[in-house]
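Whether sequence alone determines local backbone shape is best considered at the level of individual chains. The sequence in question and its structure tokens are set out directly beneath this paragraph.

===
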Amino acid sequence: MEWPAHLGAATSVLAAAVVLAGCSYGPATPPMAETSSVSASASTGPAAVSILPGMAQLGTALTAKGATITPKSDNLTVVRQPTSSELEVGIEVSLTGVTAPIDVTGPNGGFQLYVSSGEHIPTATPTVLTSTPLVSPVNADADGWVFFHIRPDMLPTQLALTAAPAGYGLTPQSIAIWIMPAKLPAPGLPPAPPAPPPPPGAPPAEPAPAPAPADQGGGGGNDGNRGGFHPRLPPPPKMPQLPAPQVPSVICRHTGLC
């Protein structure tokens, strides 16, 4: 059977439309193999960088902002405060390889002490300990102390170094975390306060009496004791004066004794 020429042209147009519709609404073609390999290597290759902060036990060195930071676990001190019930905690920290300023205290970052209740304790000015504190920001290699004031019922769990981009008003986030010991050292007593100075116009304190000089003379007896106390002896009794001898004159003639 032979179709008219106009019907054949219509059939060709309809077939082309069906093919185009299938290409438009059919399943998408799979991505190119090269694109898949590049995507996988970008997410799993060695160039991938973790945004999580480093974590280690207290006393272990961690790298943050290009510097090596080590809180020293053997220099962890806890003392009682004489004017309150709080404890003062001091930790010595060493920073080496510093190439950019690092805030160790202040609103833009610094060290914080995390406790079991979930609180973040910022650094404080020491009131008892006299160790040299770290001065913020740290611009070169330095060793110093950071201090915290906590209640006796608080259990420190982590020491964190936080940082925030300057000028953006963002909350500082942890860039290095150290796990605290399960138990802090027993708190020591605060040092005794120095003696108050004497009031103005008060007479000076009398000096202590000098010790008595030791007896340098020889002592009686055979004990050989040349020091210590010796009793004073009475003077010897006076002997009676004897009369001069009377030599006979006969002897005086022949001798020069008379």
Q: What stands out?
A: The longest helix spans residues 5-25.
